[in-house]
Design a protein that fits this description.
- The complex is a heterodimer of chains A (222) and B (235).
- Chain A is of the alpha/beta class.
- Chain A is 55% helix and 9% strand.
- A five-stranded parallel β-sheet of chain A has the order 2-1-3-4-5, sandwiched between helices.
- In chain A, helix 1 packs parallel to helix 3.
- By secondary structure, chain B is α+β, with helices and mostly antiparallel strands.
- Chain B has one domain: NADH Oxidase.
- In chain B, strand 3 and strand 4 form a beta hairpin.
- In chain B, helix 3 crosses helix 6, helix 5 runs antiparallel to helix 6 and helix 6 packs parallel to helix 8.
- Classes of the chains: A alpha/beta (222), B alpha+beta (235).
- At the A-B interface, helix 4 and helix 5 of A face helix 6 of B.
Amino acid sequence: MSELLSKLAECIEFGKINMASPYPPQMKGQEGADEITRKALDEGVNPQDILSKGLMPGMERIGIKFRENKVFVPQVLMSAKAMSTAMLHLKPHFLSGAAKQKGTFIIGTVLGDLHDIGKNLVGMMVEGNGYKVIDLGTDVSSDKFIAALKENPNAVIGLSALLTTTMVNMEKITREIKEALPGTLVTIGGAPVNNDFCMKIGADNYSPDPQGVVEFLNTKIA
Amino acid sequence: MIHNYQFNFQELDISKNEISELLGFNGEEMPEPFGSYLEEACQDAARLCDIRGAVYISENIEFISNNSAFTIDGQFFDAGKLISRQLKKATSLALFICTAGEGISKKSQALLHGDDPAKGYVYDVLGSITVETAMDKIQRQLREELSATGEKLTNRYSPGYCDWSVAHQHKLFSFFPENHCGISVNSSALMHPIKSVSGVIGIGKEVKFNKYHCEMCTSETCIYRNLRSRAEKIF
């Protein structure tokens, strides 16, 4: 079992989706996340173990490489695609309760901002690390965040902004979320923000990279 | 008076090596499937892109004494000190809008949110470089037209950056007819299609084109950091 799961982790780390996928070149012709996940389930491996011992370590490794500038956005997206392919096999088990996600993370790019590549990467990385992710998209108002929170009590909120002029909307959104639902955790990210800004606006965490968000969630929820 | 521009994708002559670098493959050969994705995106771009731009130039400008704002034809723009300082020696200002069109914006969004985000990212980067290259071309044409009078151009500055509120987008677009070049602005002041840019360029004998200050920003992977270092080589 451990060999199968470590092979699965490798597929996620290097973005090997399935046998037909030519990427990465060094794994051409080999089985990918699709086939190995199916095989693991057929062999009776617990879906929770597939998630926590196969998929999540792979996502964690690619997250760390991205933080260290050893890989770039395209490679992370390939890992995310391998991950989502594997998750398709696991989804029925989550629905049946045989496997559980760690918690819920609601993410969106703040009002006035359309940039979403960074937000998407965070969403994929968080999902790949065992959380349910609700992506509200871009140009998202406080009302939308609060409505999503009411539907998903105890979820953590992630706010993203790329523009210097929309980071100010983070302050308003954070304040309104915390007024409406005290105790909600808010993590922020994006090019113009930093830890000082996070503290100033009363958010709970700033992460310069997706892996930082995963680490924050793991500390607070998992 | 509004000057209009239209280009087809081929005449922008965007090099695949440049796109490859912006994708993060610095000088190395792109592994598959990215080579095929890029090939497909470039072929598709000729069909998907509707590249249009427009420039409105006014000499009726005034800089406010604290150097953080200016007016164009009486419209007040509080663009912040960083931008206004770069423009203050200008004797006229050019407002610009430009888009790569709805087709490529929609295609990249559909892929990014659909079943192939990696391919979507290739289209997204291609859309960004297309609109920036079109604006480079417009700026070059403007510079050539003005060179006889000894006038020069500043960098391009856009709402949303360097403390210039994105809300000023509405004022900027009021200088152009509604839906000009196929670009509209929503209530949050965001442009549609997504792959569109807008902003201001200073014109005058005393103005300078400066290096962009990307070092002030913490995003090492931002595509605009690379696009701007490229602009510094062009102008």
